[in-house]
Amino acid sequence: MSRDKRFPGLSRFGRLAGGVGLSLSLLAGSLALPTVAHAEGEIRIAEQFGIVYLLLNVVRDQQLIEKHGKADGLDIKVDWTQLSGGSAVNDALLSGSIDIAGAGIGPLLTVWDRTHGKQNVKGVASLGNFPYYLLSNNPKVKSIADLTEQDRIAVPAVGVSIQSRFLQYAAAQQWGDKEFNRLDKYTVALPHPEATSALTSGATELTGHFSNPPFQNQALDNPNVHVVLDTYQLLGPNSPVVLYTTEKFRAENPKTYQAFVAALAEAAEFAQNDKAAAADTYIRVTKAKISKEDLLKIIDNEQFQFSVTPTGTLQLAEFLHRVGALKNKPASWQDYFFADPRLGQGS
């Protein structure tokens, strides 16, 4: 019996998951396509949903790229777009639709591996260290070992999103490396806002959501939702979200690139040192329906660190190579990040 017949409410989820499969095909095909070149002084940035993209909100709100460009004698035009899922972001980067991709470390590692020796996509900076939660509204699910065919877990992109990679890492810890993708069949692609609504309503067959802040915190306000897995317990403090670009863009637009990294570093210092002002920025830019008080409860703690320094990424990269998800084995985090002294001592 097909999944849609057993779970009729998942037909829309299935179409979304199918779209991710198409997106992966496009990714493979786009490796041969040249990126669209443009003159120095233009940058197109793709972000996704959640507080983890707050540094980009600060950069946008304070026009920091434009500021650092002018300091170097360059007027920079900045275009912003919002996508959902690492597959869509990677497709946009490789097709030349965007210059800077914002996504999880999982999608970066995937595209770094596939473009190695070609477009040579690498990381630009981290957006900080944040815990991600796997949530469930199924009272029988206390750990990933309790997941069954009756469960469906929302992730931004099936298989390649950082949430999917975290789930694979956890599965390997539970059942061994050969079973790393054991839970992939339970995942469906859905943006965080929609997944949060579905999980908390309990009106669909969705029983799980591998979320991010603030969506995971808002979902936990519902007494029927609980934490199944905390990524800080799984991997320790880590940088789940990063920014990355092609070698071509960095080489052909050095002033624009440097202005962008300088803007990120300034935004990180601002957000880390004044989280109240950062919260105001997030609410103003995203128009999020969350109070400043509730937002500060999430970000004003030691687990939230706004920083451009990548942390705890190599452990996941080594795992993905070990299970065959990456062909190229990185010797260090610097293999998949462009060199920049502002990134500090990463890991």
Beta fraction: 5-15%
How far is the first residue's CA from the last residue's CA?
Answer: 46 Å
From the alpha carbons, calculate the radius of gyration and give it in angstroms: 19 Å
Principal-axes geometry comes out as globular
Lateral strand order in the biggest sheet: 2-1-3-10-4
CATH class wording of the largest domain: Alpha Beta
User: How many domain modules?
Assistant: 2
Percent of residues in helices comes to 40-55%
* Multimeric state: single chain
CATH topology of the largest domain: D-Maltodextrin-Binding Protein, domain 2
Describe this structure in words.
This is ABC transporter substrate-binding protein. InterPro entries: TAT_signal (IPR006311). Pfam families: NMT1_2. This protein has 347 residues and is of the alpha/beta class. The chain folds into two domains: 24-130 and 238-343, 3-Layer(aba) Sandwich (D-Maltodextrin-Binding Protein, domain 2); 132-235, 3-Layer(aba) Sandwich (D-Maltodextrin-Binding Protein, domain 2), CATH 3.40.190. The protein contains 15 helices and ten strands. It has helices at 3-6, 11-30, 54-61, 64-71, 86-94, 105-114, 162-175, 192-201, 215-219, 231-235, 247-252, 254-273, 275-286, 292-299, 314-322; strands spanning 42-47, 77-82, 100-104, 122-126, 133-136, 153-155, 187-189, 208-210, 226-230, 241-245. A five-stranded mixed β-sheet has the order 2-1-3-10-4, with helices on both faces. Strands 7-6-8-5-9 form a five-stranded mixed β-sheet, with helices on both faces. Strand 6 (153-155), helix 7 and strand 7 form a beta-alpha-beta unit. Helix 2 (11-30) packs parallel to helix 5 (86-94), helix 3 (54-61) crosses helix 13 and helix 4 crosses helix 12. The chain is globular and about 60 Å long. The model is unreliable at 1-37 (pLDDT under 50).
